Amino acid sequence: ATNKNHQLRHVESMNILPSGAGNIPELNAVILGESLASEEHDLVFPNPKFSQHALVSSPQKYLEMYTRSIEDPAGFWSDIASEFYWKKKWGQQVCSQNLDVTKGRINIEWFKGGLTNICYNCLDKNIESGNGDKIALHWEGNELNIDGSLTYKQLLEKVCQLANFLKDNGVKKGDTVIVYLPMIMELPITMLACARIGAVHSVVFAGYSAESLHQRVMDCKPKIVITCNAVMRGKKVINLKEIVDAALSESSQNGVFVATCLTFENESAMKKEDTKWLKGRDVWWQDVVPKCSTTCDVEWVDAEDPLFLLYTSGSTGKPKGVLHTTGGYMIYTATTFKYAFDYKDTDIYWCTADCGWITGHSYVTYGPLLNGATVVLYEGVPNYPDAGRCWDIVDKYKVTIFYTAPTLVRSLMRDGDDYVTRYSRKSLRVLGSVGEPINPSAWRWFFNVVGDSRCPISDTWWQTETGGFMITPIPGAWPQKPGSATLPFFGVQPVIVDEKGNEIDGECSGYLCVKNSWPGAFRTLYGDHERYETTYFSAFPGYYFSGDGCSRDKDGYHWLTGRVDDVINVSGHRIGTAEVESALVSHPQCAEAAVVGVEHEVKGQGIYAFVTLVDGIPYSEELRKSLVLVVRNQIGAFAAPDRIHWAPSLPKTRSGKIMRRILRKIASKQLDELGDISTLADPSVVDQLIALADS
Ligand code: 6R9
């Protein structure tokens, strides 16, 4: 059976498929739970009133659209693409692809030959259709009384001014621009300005260290770097300019010179006068950008011209530059946003992700603006001044769609219901979750307490590499199961394979792959197409391999089980164990390090590092601190190990391979599950490590 068939069969055979809402006992959203044997059987039915007005109102409607998207992808996607503006229509072939390494170079193209511009489609097109005075961005500052907003027209003017500045400073189509900005309006403005002139933006999350930023500068050699002097995160001032200065000075010592560093004065965090300045290189945004013209011609680019580079972690120490192109990404982010959140023109949308991650690219900036949505941006941390801030923001802007990460849900859940229930939240209509599996208890709290048992939750599974949602509920269309990302989005054919790469059908679990490409797929790793092919397409020839484990239940619902490679997921941030290890061993007193993920109540996974010290060096609290610091400095605070475990020696096989399986068990204190340790070169190492666990 083809995958398509079994997807459909699963949905068709679901006993919950309504033949009209009439046979659902209670018509309000209801959790059947307690009496059922397993979590998998908990069904949360859509509220019929919600379904009635939903874009996809029933499983049948989904099936119709899904079937067409699989049987006729060219027709399905070109119909959608035709709703956007193309300077010139794409060529004869909507999609050409090879995902099979045994058949030659991996290659994916969508809408090739078509000329378009994503900035034009986000702004000019919405203005022309009469939405110029609609709010595009609401910005909420870290402090309670600092905010701002821009209409679509105003946003376009700001974008054009920056685009003109970039052009005047020699940035041309295809050039790279590194963006190191916090969540202020200048961040989406910068992304859109780059897109307008065909420049490739590479946003670096402003929590990365100088060393990480330097690495990225070396890899993509930007024409210009855009930053701001500082940002407030809660009560802390973070001096971003200092980090950029350190990164750029290291890069120039290594032969990569950045001529211009455009710096926005983020007044509420730091004054101009207090900012360190390199004459000749540094330019204040406020001095130059407002002087530029508020109109700027669009650079029409091929659908397959690059739009952005975004670095992400893999299983080796070197970050991967994920490259997305223009046309397919545009169509895919717009469509997934629309359906997975059941978007309506009247919605006010808030996604708590930072634009430094893919979620901020696809679902703060591009997806929502392509739909003409009103987007809320929040500069600060979600629990400042207290754990009620999110709901304060929801009430202030009458947010209808709220999209966040399980780690935030868990942390707010721990702070108690009171912070939530003291706000009305009655504007909320749809909730969303992303970044890691959401555990059923957090799901229920999110649903019952935050959403007053009224709002469906879109638990969206996807990745930096996929560009947009891959497996996601479509609110109103079918019942949800707490903790399951449910069913594939239109055009997506997820398959589960065993170790040998055989597709497995029915109720099963294994490695999650995708058959055939979708428009939002990444096209290569910047400057390293070979690594692209080996990392994603070689393990299971013929498929894209996600790196995630997944099981599928009898109803065809998907349950993501986490990474199966050496990547850990800390608060929804992807961190390679190798990256942390290489930071640790750069410490002069650290001889060797092995890092594993352990379950963490709030972060999902925590970082647990075993370290072997240089001969003769004693382990001490001071040394522990300096080991944590070296990781903060090399990667960023979000990658700081939660636990350092001194290991006089590490468990290794006779061929010298570290047995992480054993380390994981020791870290999670599952000592009765150590398994076979007889293949270790020195099995006594295990007891020694266990004895040191509490030191
Ligand atoms: C969008 C994003 C991707 C990895 C992915 C998986 C995990 C993301 C998830 C999820 C279960 C979800 N992940 N969403 N796991 N359910 N709804 O997070 O991209 O930073 O590249 O991370 O995150 O393990 O492989 P990215």
Automatic annotation (TrEMBL):
It is an enzyme of class 6 (ligase). Residues 62-122 form the Acetyl-coenzyme A synthetase N-terminal domain. Keywords: ATP-binding, Ligase, Nucleotide-binding, Phenylpropanoid metabolism. Belongs to the ATP-dependent AMP-binding enzyme family. Residues 131-517 form the AMP-dependent synthetase/ligase domain. Its EC number is 6.2.1.1. Pathway: Phytoalexin biosynthesis; 3,4',5-trihydroxystilbene biosynthesis; 3,4',5-trihydroxystilbene from trans-4-coumarate: step 1/2. This is Acetyl-coenzyme A synthetase. CDD domains: ACS. GO terms for molecular function: acetate-CoA ligase activity; AMP binding; ATP binding. The keyword ATP-binding applies. It catalyses: acetate + ATP + CoA = acetyl-CoA + AMP + diphosphate. It comes from Artemisia annua. The keyword Nucleotide-binding applies.
